[in-house]
Amino acid sequence: MTRAFTGTYRGVSSAERREDRRRRLLDAALDIVGTQGLAALTVRGVCEQAKVGPRFFYEAFPDLDALASDLLLEVQRSALDRARVAIAETEGPPARRIRAAVAALITELTDDPRRAKIVFAQAYGNEALMRARFAGMRTVAATIIEQTRIVLDLPAGQETAVAATSQLITGGAAELVLVWLDGGLDIDRDGLIDLLADFTIAMIDRLPEVAGRLNGTA
C-alpha cells in the first residue's frame, strides 16, 4: 500500500514551513532596509540573512518590490492595531481617547528605528513602495474615519467632511514625523506625540463647522 504524502515533515506541515520562510524573509528585509536602506536589499542578501534558498524567495514573493511593500504594509497594520486597542481601552472624553491612539501609533512606529525608517523614509523614489505607502495611508485615513465616528458618535451627513479631515490628518502627520526623524524638529518623542494629538483633536473638533460649510448650512 502506498501512503499519501501529506507534506508534513517532523511534525511541521508544508504550509507552516512556507509561512516560516516568508516570516524570516520579512524579518531579514526589515533589518536590511531599516539599517542600510532600500538600495541594499537584494535577493541574495535577504536570502542569506534569512537562511532561505533563492527558489523559496520566489515562492513567497514575486520580486523585491513585493517583499518591501508587504513589509511596509505589515508595519502600518501593526501600528493601527495598537491605536485601535488604545482607543478601546481608554476611558474618558474623546480628546483623551484620541491622544491615547496617537501615542500608541507613534510609539509602535518609532520604538524600533528600522520600522520608522521603512514607513516614513524609504518609500520615496520607489514606485511600488509609494503605492504601498499610499494604500497604507488610505487605510490609516479609513481608520480615523471609523474611530472618529465611534468616539464622537457623529450624525449622518458628515461623510465628506470626515473623509477630507482624515486625509489632512494622515498626510500632515506623516510629513511631520518624517521631518522629526530627520532632525528638523527640536522636540523629543513625547513632544511630537503632544503636537500630533493636539493637531488631530483640533481638526476633529472643527468637523461640525467644516461639514456645515460643505453642506451649505454654515
Secondary-structure-based class equals mainly alpha
CATH topology of the largest domain: Tetracycline Repressor, domain 2
Strand composition percent: under 5%
At CATH level 2, the architecture of the largest domain is Orthogonal Bundle
Instruction: Give the helix level as a range of percent.
Output: over 70%
Number of domains: 2
N-C termini distance: 81 Å
Task: From the alpha carbons, calculate the radius of gyration and give it in angstroms.
Answer: 21 Å
Low-confidence stretches: 1-5
Largest sheet: none
* Number of helical elements: 10
Question: Which sequence of SSEs, written as H and E, runs from N to C?
Answer: HHHHHHHHHH
The CATH superfamily of the largest domain is identified as Tetracycline Repressor, domain 2
Indicate the overall shape.
Answer: elongated
CATH class of the largest domain: Mainly Alpha
Give the strand tally: 0
Can you walk through the features of this model?
Helices cover 75% and strands 0% of the residues. It has 218 residues and is mostly helical. The protein has two domains: 14-61, Arc Repressor Mutant, subunit A; 68-215, Tetracycline Repressor, domain 2 (Orthogonal Bundle). The radius of gyration is 21 Å and the shape is elongated.
